[in-house]
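Re: the request from the purification team.
They wanted to know what the chain is likely to look like in 3D before they choose a buffer screen. I agreed to run a prediction and write the result into the notebook, where they can find it.
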Amino acid sequence: MRFYEDLALCAQGSGEAKWWSGEQAGAGIQTKMGIYILINNGTMDMYVKCGSMREAYLSEFKHDDVTFVGVLSACSHAGFVSLGRQILGQMKSKYCVVPTIEHYTCVVDMLCRAGQLEEAYQLALTSPTEANAVVSRALLAACWLHGNSDIAEVAAKHVLRFEPEHSDSYVLMSNVYVAAGKYEELLHVRNMMRQQNVRKLPGCSWIEVKNGVHAFINGDRTHPGSNFYL
């Protein structure tokens, strides 16, 4: 466990220094301990946090499903779309790791962030594992951001089939319709919320005072110290 903590510290460093330190630490650990999956994943985490996705992917360490979730998630956040596609396509054929819904979720999120909504939608449809609410909600949020109401409607239907009580999905769909000027559809969404008795959770602010945490919503006067804090 100590070696894993050392790798985590290397990952929290900066620039080439943290990459080189982690590389040396990982090599030393492999020499002394042989292949140890926890250490392998720690080394992968170090590569990913250094932005060295290709080194993580091409390393000789044994890859497992956790490894690929980390690498694909990093590709998503870093915008390495081509590499992410390549990794997903080679997981089973090259590394004998069957992609799960977590891996497809990472790639769908990656494509959504890159604005490639049609490809993300097709991947969600054709994936061997059925897309869950998380995948569809990522699509829905991206549709709002990029103004695609057609895919948003399909994604919303899928989300609401799994989680009809989830208020965020209704809010996202409402925002999509407002942006597209589809006010009749917007009224339909609000009627659905009333029928399902779904309410949007209010935004909440937190403040720490003298080792105590206090929560407030907009215009909240129920807290005994509201006159002082607000």
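For the purification team: The first helix runs from residue 2 to 11.
Please add any questions underneath this entry.
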